[in-house]
Backbone:
């Protein structure tokens, strides 16, 4: 039976975390309009089956308006949202960090920004477990 995974992005380097329970990473006050949902369903929750074929979409705007080298990784958490004491190699298959290469610069807006988006998991980096097995 496939276990559901509640996929939390642990760190989005240069931007704010998706879930407020996790306080790690580098944060920027210029990051706004963070959206994280089931691919193709903007009102869907960011939930997927571990090992399933579905993906999640991540979108956010950087009001600094300069294109940056942005990447993300996963963090396995316990039921109380505290980080699990495991190496990333124990719960990530592939690369431990993925760069977000899909972005567009605003053109007609009065406020300049860069919109970043990513489909998660990427074929080069995906979670391999959703819980700690004792």
Residues:
């Amino acid at each position: 039976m496939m276990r559901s995974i509640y996929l939390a992005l642990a760190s989005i380097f240069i931007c704010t975390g998706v879930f407020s329970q996790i306080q790690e990473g580098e944060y920027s006050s210029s990051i706004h309009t963070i959206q994280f949902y089931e691919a193709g369903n903007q009102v869907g929750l960011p939930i997927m089956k571990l090992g399933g074929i579905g993906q999640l979409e991540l979108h956010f705007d950087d009001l600094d308006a300069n294109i940056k080298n942005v990447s993300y990784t996963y963090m396995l958490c316990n039921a109380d949202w505290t980080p699990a004491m495991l190496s990333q190699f124990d719960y990530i298959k592939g690369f431990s960090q993925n760069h977000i290469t899909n972005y567009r610069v605003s053109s007609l807006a009065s406020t300049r920004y860069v919109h970043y988006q990513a489909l998660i998991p990427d074929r080069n980096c995906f979670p391999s477990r959703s819980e700690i097995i004792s």
Q: What stands out?
A: The chain has one domain: 4-127.
